[in-house]
Amino acid sequence: IEYVIELGKGLEPLPEEARVDANKVPGCAAQVWLATRREANRLWFLADSDSALSKGNIALLLRLYSGRTPAEILGFDARAALDGLGLPQALTRQRANGLNSMVGRIRAEAMASA
Question: Which of 14, 16, 38, 77 has a CA between 20 and 30 Å from the CA of residue 63?
């Protein structure tokens, strides 16, 4: 968990104009914002949270997903990757649900762009 929190400290700041309700990820224990930019058939994500752990979780997801094509995002098994890291088991049920919500939002953005 400490490593995940450290990842969050290196997260690029989210511009204030991206902190809008449309970018909020529902189902998270903390406030999480996720903005998407499409460029050359790739999706780039910017995100932030008011919680250090949620910020770390989203930083990890951005490393896995940002800069990929919609097909790559949809073809990637995030659950297996995160299970391999042991992350879901280290989180409370509510935080694990929030992590799933973040993955769901990223996948929805990829489906909308595919």
Answer: 16
pTM confidence score: 0.91
What is the spatial distance between Cα 75 and Cα 16, in angstroms, rounded to a whole number? 32
- Alpha carbon distance 28, 15 (integer Å): 20
Which distant-in-sequence residues (6+ apart) come within 8 Å of 67 by Cβ?
42, 43, 44
Evaluated on CA atoms 112, 59, 13, 42, the torsion sign reads negative
Interval 58-88: pLDDT, tens: 999 999 999 999 999 999 998 888 888 888 7
Q: Which of 4, 14, 25, 28 is catalytic?
A: 28
6/59 Cα distance (integer angstroms): 9
The CA distance from 114 to 109, in Å, is 9
- 76 as an active site residue: the answer is no
